[in-house]
Amino acid sequence: MAGGGAAGGRLPVPDGGRTDADNALGVRNRKRVLGAWLVDPDEGFAKANYVLPDASAQEQYFADTLFRGALQRVQRANLASKDSRVQTAMNKWEQLVEACPPLCNLRKLRFEGDLDTSDQNEKVLLIAAEFFRRAPKNAAGDLIKGDTVGDSVSALKVAAEEHYGRKVLCASGGLMLKLALQNMRREDGPSGGRALSAPLRQQHLQELAQDSCPFDILGEGWPRVRWALMQAMHQALMRGGEPGRTPRQPFRPALGICWRHLVWLDPATLMPATVRVGAHLHDLLVMFVRPIKDQKGRHKRVPIPIISKHPAGWCGLDLTCPYTALARSWEDRVGGKPWASLADEPFFVAPDGLAVTTDTVAAVIRLAALALRLQPGVFNASALRRGGATDLRAKLGTVGGKQLIVQRGRWCETDVDDIYSRASLEEHAGASLALASAVGQSLEQAAPGWVQPTHFGR
Hints:
The chain is mainly alpha-helical and 458 residues long. It has helices at 20-35, 57-76, 80-99, 115-134, 146-164, 175-188, 202-208, 222-235, 322-334, 339-342, 358-371, 383-396, 398-409, 416-420, 425-435, 443-446; strands spanning 262-263, 274-277, 280-289, 302-307.
């Protein structure tokens, strides 16, 4: 097998993960922010000069080119979801301005600690929040939820701050706005129960591999890729978009899993890697996964060890072995192509020839649920991630499994012991073996109608 090189690097993503449609929406939003008198167009950040008055035309052009490029980079820094929130907020703001044209716009702070301007801006935002709350959202007269009001008001504030290049509320400001939004949320009462999202666990994967199951894991092409994808997602506790991409976005080597992110060789010997678990050596694959929640690109890829279910040198064929599933998919598709042409190509490719998406993953999981005669509607793209975490907890215990679940699943964790502690390769190898042999039933399955909450009451 080829591909034993370093896999932890990231490639630049110059477009910020945005599509042409996202950029077009951002341009429309900025025009609406100016046209609807949310801000003062003459006080924008881009209006200030950045070269001395005696600069030549060539020097001015050079500085202008760099500044325009920098502004474009700033504008591309926003996620598409942020642009959607601004669009929704501007719809409501335009209704407010039409009803009350003399309303002041948001102004930039003249200096740090400009309480007068901060208080004026907070009053405008309070008026906006109250207007958004009182305006019925439908013919039935239902009110907009407090959380939605907060999102819209925040979007207005952020749009103004991006125009001015500085805050519109002082560090000590915003108290009254915070209390108003807090009380709106209290008026709404507790949020509704979470929809059931069931785990797809190791025992399900084992049932799918049975000859009696109609789910194809043997066929060449997509069936093998699909099976390797499922095994990898269960082993690495992957979110639906982490193997490839989200539905609206193109594949990006910096975000998805490429061929170079599967490392089969020991970097010291360039021989197939192995790891000792108990008395036996097991074949070892390290897959590097980037957490999709890391929208700011601050964190490195996380190495996820995946080992063979049986000791190295075992001559049988166990398709429930995640290492075997990935190795078969690798060997089927590597062909005679030079490694350089594959390194940054997506490893998990759907039948359409493109990298798998969250929707692809969800469709695969629901098809598997149908094959198992389960209700597909209760499974989504995170079912294997949830199933892997459940299996690890069942095998290693609540306390013993916590650290490995946090690390292996790339969950955010603020406890100091989780930040500074380190898990050994052998521990991860044991986790990999545990994932490949776990059985059992979740509490949700044993208690129909109950869905585990995000937080337990104290």
